[in-house]
Every structure is written in structure tokens, then in C-alpha cells.
Write a structure and sequence with these properties.
237 residues; alpha+beta; Arc Repressor Mutant, subunit A; Immunoglobulin-like; five-stranded antiparallel beta sheet; four-stranded antiparallel beta sheet; membrane
């Protein structure tokens, strides 16, 4: 018989050297009267010649008396069920805990998604620039400075790298050949910089954006020029 006492203080190395080593494990069962008559007789014969087992039996001698003090009703009684009101409170608390965990998971996912979206926008468009450039800068009509069947508006937006110039241009003629135009920035020093070019499409509004390193306060004029370099539209910021 094996039990919680198999590796007790009397389970020494000598047991493995005996031919009938298993009998050394019957000490507790012998004290509690759990052996069959044949096994009990065999153990008593062994006990007469084994000092180690006699020490074990003496160590377990008080165990029956201790067990006899435990009320039989307590040993066989079913575990008491919690009061109905306590059961209800436990169920409610568990349900609320699950609900809180679910809310925290959803909220955490929403925050993570928002952070990822902000990071993606910053990476895609750079600081200070959204997918539509934030609030669109006001567009102003460009003034005709030479006869030409073209009208346009221009808007300037300050950027960390300089200035974005957005032009909405419409060609009103019926061109039988490609008519080319360029978008030019003239700075306060008189230097001209071409930042965009296109071919006119009759009765179509074209939206063009050019970028310059010149800051808005250093721009004297925004011009639309014909293919021969003649300014036809101009805007003074």
C-alpha cells in the first residue's frame, strides 16, 4: 500500500535492498487496520525482525486516535451551498467583471486604431499636412495682364519646405492645336521659377499644384504664362 507517508522520515535507502521492499509501505495501513488478515499476518511476521518498520508503526500509533475525534457527520456532510442572496451577488459581480473586461478590450482596440490612423497620416502627408492639406487656403482670382481665353484662381499654402501654389485654370477657347501654359513664381528679388506646366483642354477646369522653396512673404507674384513666356494672368499675394 502506498500513501502520503511513502517518503516520510522512515522511508530510508535500506528499503530498496530488501527482497520484500513493498512490505515497508504497509506501516500506516497496518496501524489503521486497513490490511487483509493474510497481509496483516505477513506484516506482523516481518515487523518482528525489522526495527525500521517498528519505528514507523510507533510514529503512526497516534493516528487512529486523532481520526476518531473528527465527527462522522462532518466527514460525510455535503459542502454547504452559499445563500441564495450571496449566489446572486456573485453572479452579478462576475457578469459586471466580464462586461468591464469587454469594454476595456473594445476601448483599447479603438484607441490603438486611432493611434495607428494618426501615425499613418503623419507618415503619408508629413507634419502639418493632412490628406486635404487641413483647411484649404482661400483662392483668389488671378488678374488678366494680356488677352487670352483663360481664367484662373490661385491659393497659397505655407509649408515647412516653402509654399504650395494651387491653381484652378479653365481654357475657354476651341484650340485646334495644343496650347501650353506654365505656372511661374516671381520672388521679391525678381527671380522667376517655373513650378508647373500643362496643355490647355477646351472647356475643362484643370487643378494644378506646384511647390517652391520661396516663402509666401518672399513672393512678389504668381503668374500664368503662355508658351512663349508672355504673362497672361497674375496674382500679387
Amino acid at each position: 500500500m502506498t500513501g502520503p507517508f511513502d517518503s516520510g522520515p522512515f522511508d530510508g535507502g535500506l528499503r530498496g535492498d530488501d527482497a520484500d521492499a513493498d512490505i515497508h509501505h504497509d506501516d500506516a495501513a497496518y496501524v489503521l487496520g486497513a490490511l487483509s488478515p493474510a497481509d496483516r499476518h505477513r506484516y506482523e511476521q516481518h515487523l518482528a525482525g525489522c526495527a525500521r518498520c517498528r519505528e514507523s508503526v510507533q510514529a503512526f500509533a497516534g493516528l487512529p486516535g486523532l481520526l476518531s475525534r473528527v465527527p462522522v457527520e462532518q466527514v460525510g456532510a455535503e459542502p454547504a451551498a452559499p445563500p441564495p442572496e450571496l449566489s446572486g451577488d456573485l453572479f452579478t459581480a462576475a457578469r459586471r467583471a466580464r462586461w468591464r473586461r469587454r469594454v476595456m478590450v473594445v476601448a483599447g482596440g479603438a484607441v490603438a486604431a486611432a493611434v495607428c490612423l494618426v501615425l499613418a497620416l503623419l507618415l503619408a502627408f508629413g507634419p502639418g499636412r493632412g490628406p486635404t492639406g487641413g483647411q484649404a487656403p482661400p483662392a483668389r482670382a488671378m488678374t488678366a495682364v494680356a488677352p487670352a481665353p483663360v481664367t484662373a484662381t490661385a491659393a497659397l499654402a505655407t509649408r515647412p519646405w516653402g509654399t504650395d501654389v494651387t491653381v484652378r485654370c479653365r481654357y475657354h477657347g476651341a484650340a485646334s492645336y495644343p496650347v501650353g501654359y506654365t505656372l511661374v513664381v516671381v520672388d521679391t528679388g525678381g527671380h522667376s521659377e517655373r513650378i508647373s506646366s500643362w496643355s490647355a483642354v477646351p472647356d475643362k477646369t484643370m487643378v494644378l499644384t506646384g511647390t517652391t522653396a520661396t516663402r509666401p512673404d518672399r513672393i512678389r507674384a504668381i503668374q500664368v504664362r503662355a508658351s512663349d513666356g508672355t504673362p497672361v494672368l497674375s496674382l500679387t499675394p
